[in-house]
Specification:
heterodimer, A: 247 residues, alpha/beta, Rossmann fold, B: 528 residues, alpha+beta, Hypothetical Protein Pfu-838710-001, CHAD domain, 3 domains, ten-stranded antiparallel sheet, 55% helix, globular, binds adenosine-5'-triphosphate, binds magnesium ion
């Protein structure tokens, strides 16, 4: 099982759009895939029209009671663990745990799923907290959307710093440019400057109305039109991520 | 595995069943959506003895598009495939479809079994968020009039979605309330269709089981066993004559040998002239099939042979294979003539007539089959052990060959009469015998192969000495490898035989024989 966390400490950079579409592409290409919505806002769950069961909450999640809360999406091979409103307290709950254990909780929660799924995609909330540290620990790779702007890049630098502090393997980070607008000279300049770093993937995701519309249509772009420009771009991104993550 | 499988269920449904109305019956903002329907005319293929069906698969084709399904009708794979009427797995392109077929079909041809037209409609039950919470598939199958059919069947399949159990259960309940007949979970989707088409899958095994009543007379035993084996001969005959795959001939030869074995076991019950006639004629027909079977064995081993040889010798092997094919074609034509001859047809007719008209005697007078069988087993086993113990490291191959025949005779005896003996003991003994049989069988095969390769005449046309030389070199290489392997097999014989001759097996035979009613007085089992 390959665990991919779609992560950025910055909000609104396209994490959820990426998580939803990558998970969909993974499932279409034959991987048994589980998308875990870690963000109490539940945007990923919303895109799949899935609500959590009433008895689910953050304690249950951390106790590893997830199997019975997983629900099937409308797409074969793709399941989803919906977010619960109480996930907003995840950090509080984690903080109460013993210092030694509290960074590995998520790793332990997901481990039992290894025979059921080939790919685990985590849609993460925009934080830089104990939950983030758990995610770094649990994930084989962090896929980080970066809008080619200064602020977005600062978020990436902060992440690298946290990796340094935790003495984690920076090779896990796979960054890519998200919501790229070619007519903006600042976007082009930033990409020119940073794309040479090996931590950046070659594929980027342009700013497309089709992706924005997912909020209305409530399904992955590939389900609306299998061969649309956006769907193809996510296919490409998935292929590159999959290849890099297996190196 | 932590995650449960999603539930599913299948019902027999009236053709005009209405799915859309389900939404109203559920209330609460539910709706039913329908996807693109599908109509396919397909032909289902399977091996002669339905191996795909038995291992929970189904292979369909429309034109050259092949689709492989699992027992519950889920599509497992699809792709273009061969045009051939009866393809083998090796006629498919490399890929997952082919991999699946390798496992299930093995060396058997995939034969057209039934044709049908399937209309499939796909529905989804949507909740208030327009999320799919249950999938429904209405499948109408029409079997055109012909060898099978006509028939018209309608099934409704429900497939749950993980985490939406309540909806599945509710609809399941509604269907039950409507009185729809539920097909037991796990039933292969073709099974009800085959039943309606009047196709009997069970009658297609390669060997008919012989089940004898406990107190049957000797003649009764002969009749029943003989007729069962005769039906095996008849069942495999058309496939052999049409050369559908190599297993038909293989199974035909097994049933011919079993018939000859019956003729020798029951020699006393088949009077003089008649007995001689049957023995001679069945020997004749068995022998006319030998060369084709042998060449099949070489041709099936082509890949193994190739692996045994260095690349430089591969062209020579190719030449050998080509020659072998030509030889097989010639031999096949002459075998087919014999199998279709009046002489053989008459033989089968006479044999059947003889078996069916065996005069019935009172069991007490004629003796019980189980007593007779038990004596035969005891005698065979003793003889086998004695022969085996006489063998030393220097014994010639012919001695091992003779032992192999002894073992085979015992094996046939146990197979004919297993229903008269305690089943566990028989099964165990046969299991132990298999090791010995494999060793002796391989030893013998290797002898035969070496002789055959040594005397094989390259079909190289005149003026191709180069080619003849390449073939000879390849065969020389093969013979060396086969000889080495044979030495190894021979070396393993002593230990394997010692294992077989152990006290445990002697006791097994004792128990078997005693149950048949042979043993010290008072201990005769049975008489229930
Ligand atoms: N490539 C894109 N082109 C156009 N719109 C996009 C693109 N990616 C994301 N969006 C839109 O931008 C908004 C924010 O995207 P998204 O929710 O994926 O970001 P996020 O990083 O998950 O945000 P948050 O931090 O709040 O979870 C959404 O309305 C989404 O539809
Ligand atoms: Mg988000």
């Amino acid at each position: 099982m390959n665990t991919l966390a779609i992560y950025s400490s910055k909000g609104g950079v396209g994490k959820t759009a990426t998580a939803v579409n990558l998970a969909y592409t993974a499932a279409i290409s034959g991987q048994r895939t589980l998308l875990c919505d870690m963000d109490s806002q539940g945007a990923a769950s919303y895109y799949f029209r899935i609500k959590p069961k009433k008895k689910f909450n953050s304690e249950k999640l951390l106790e590893g009671e997830i199997a019975r809360n997983i629900r099937g999406t409308d797409f074969p091979g793709l399941d989803l663990l919906p977010a619960h409103f109480s996930f907003r307290n995840l950090d509080l709950v984690l903080n109460r745990l013993a210092e030694k254990k509290r960074r590995q909780v998520l790793t332990g929660v997901f481990a039992p799923l290894k025979d059921d799924y080939d790919v685990l995609v985590l849609d993460c909330p925009p934080n830089l907290t104990l939950l983030s540290e758990n995610i770094i620990e649990a994930a084989d790779n962090l896929v980080c959307p970066v809008i080619p702007t200064t602020l977005s890049l600062i978020a990436l630098e902060q992440l690298l710093k946290l990796f340094g502090k935790l003495d984690a393997d920076k090779g896990k980070i796979l960054a890519f440019f998200s919501m790229v607008e070619r007519r903006k000279s600042m976007h082009l300049a930033m990409m020119e400057k940073y794309s040479k770093y090996p931590l950046f993937l070659k594929t980027s995701i342009p700013f497309l109305a089709e992706i924005e519309k997912m909020g209305i249509l409530r399904q992955p772009v590939g389900a609306t039109a299998r061969l649309s420009p956006a769907a193809r771009q996510y296919d490409k991104l998935w292929q590159e991520v999959w290849e890099r993550s297996r190196r | 595995m932590m995650i449960e499988k999603v539930p599913s269920s299948t019902f027999v449904a009236p053709t005009g069943i209405e799915i859309a109305s389900l939404a109203e019956r559920l209330g609460d903002g539910y709706a039913v959506g329908e996807l693109e329907p599908e109509e396919v005319r397909e032909e289902y293929l399977d091996t002669f003895e339905w191996r795909l069906l038995i291992s929970g698969r189904a292979l369909a084709r429309s034109g050259r598009r092949y689709r492989l399904f699992s027992a519950d009708g889920t599509l497992l794979g699809e792709g273009r495939g061969p045009r051939k009427k009866r393809p083998f797995w090796w006629n498919f392109q490399e890929g997952p479809l082919r991999d699946d077929l390798i496992e299930d079909a093995d060396i058997r041809a995939l034969c057209p079994k039934l044709q049908l037209v399937r209309h499939r409609r796909f529905f989804q039950l949507l909740n208030e968020d327009e999320k799919t919470v249950l999938r429904l598939r209405l499948e109408r199958t029409i079997i055109p009039a012909g060898a099978s059919g006509p028939a018209d069947i309608c099934h409704l399949h429900l497939t749950g979605i993980r985490g939406y159990d309540q909806e599945f259960q509710t609809v399941l309940q509604l269907m039950r309330e409507d009185g729809l007949e539920e097909i037991p979970n796990g039933t292969h989707f073709l099974v009800p269709i085959l039943a309606r088409a009047g196709i009997d899958v069970d009658s297609h095994g390669s060997k008919t089981a012989i089940l004898l009543p406990r107190d049957i007379s000797i003649r009764g035993g002969l009749r029943q066993a003989g007729l069962a084996v005769l039906s095996d001969i008849r069942r495999n005959l058309p496939g052999t004559v049409d050369d559908i795959d190599t297993e038909f001939l293989h199974d035909l030869r097994i049933s011919l040998r079993r018939t000859r074995s019956l003729l020798s076991i029951f020699a006393k019950k088949i009077p003089g002239e008649q007995g001689r006639h049957f023995r001679a004629e069945f020997r004749w027909i068995t022998q006319t099939t030998g060369n084709v079977r042998d060449s099949d064995v070489y041709l099936l081993q082509e890949d193994d042979y190739r692996k045994m040889l260095p690349t430089v010798l591969h062209p020579g092997l190719t030449g050998f294979v080509r020659g072998m094919r030509e030889y097989r074609n010639r031999e096949f034509r002459s075998m087919r003539k014999s199998l279709k001859s009046q002489r053989f047809t008459r033989l089968l007719g006479q044999w059947q007539h003889f078996l069916e008209n065996l005069p019935e005697e009172a069991a007490e007078e004629a003796g019980l089959c189980r007593v007779f069988a038990a004596r035969a087993v005891k005698k065979r086993f003793r003889k086998l052990i004695a022969r085996g113990e006489d063998l030393g490291p220097d014994s010639p191959p012919a001695a091992l060959h003779a032992l192999r025949i002894e073992v085979k005779k015992l094996r046939y005896l146990l197979e004919f009469f297993h229903s008269l003996f305690p089943p566990e003991e028989v099964e165990l003994l046969i299991k132990h015998m298999k090791k010995l049989q494999n060793n002796l069988g391989e030893f013998n095969d290797l002898s035969v192969q070496q002789v055959m390769l040594g005397t094989f005449r390259s079909p190289g046309r005149n003026g191709e000495p180069q080619q003849a030389l390449a073939v000879a070199a390849a065969l020389g290489g093969l013979m060396t490898r086969l000889f080495e392997r044979q030495q190894q097999v021979r070396g393993e014989f002593e230990a394997i035989f010692a294992d077989f001759a152990c006290a445990e097996n002697r006791e097994l035979v004792q128990t078997i024989v005693r149950a048949g009613g042979v043993g010290p007085p008072g201990e005769a089992a049975g008489r229930r």
